[in-house]
Amino acid sequence: MEVLGKGVYSLTEAARLTGLKTRRARDWFVGRPTIIKRVFDSDYPAMGGEHAISFLDLVELFIGGQLREMGVSLPHIRKAYSHLESQFGSHPFCTREILVGGKEIFYRGLEDVEAKRIIKAVTDEAYFESIILPFLRNIDYDAATKLAVRWHIAPDVVVDPRRRFGKPIVEQIGIATSVLWASYYANGENEEVVADWFGIEPKHVMAAVTFEDGLAA
Length: 217
Description:
The protein is of the alpha+beta class. The chain has 10 helices and 7 strands. It has helices at 11-18, 22-29, 55-69, 74-88, 96-101, 112-122, 125-137, 177-186, 191-198, 202-216, and strands spanning 9-10, 52-53, 139-141, 148-154, 157-159, 169-170, 175-176.
């Protein structure tokens, strides 16, 4: 299984980073026999009963999860995804066209009745403008493939599949936020001590701490 440059996340990690429930992440990539058909196919095969997903899978999980929160049904998400896949290739929710096309991209090519149902949910301006667009604008896209390559998940923190296997890092220094967070609390919540130990600035420590504390909230 080749993971270098693609990022690798357990379903629990993926849920944590996207703000979704672990059960939803698992259902959407694994499914439940006779109950729920999986929505996405992971880039990685299951190994020993354990499931992992890639960075592109992670982005699609977020997009799909937010569409569901907006009231778009799973059948309609599947149909929209399938149609976009036929247009843009694999990982259509990760393409820059999603950002450029905005709300229209999600109901392109669907039958009238289906499209109207999605339009009603997706054109909730307050939700779309406050959740989906800010997320998309924090994504960097490859100029050639037009696929997502980096997620600016928080101030000074990025998720980049080409660095640290896609774990959240403080962008300027490349240290995992989880490492700095653990060091901060292991040293009496003294960012100066941690910064001195790693040879970085206190602001980098606090960027990691703020991010990790936010995930735990």
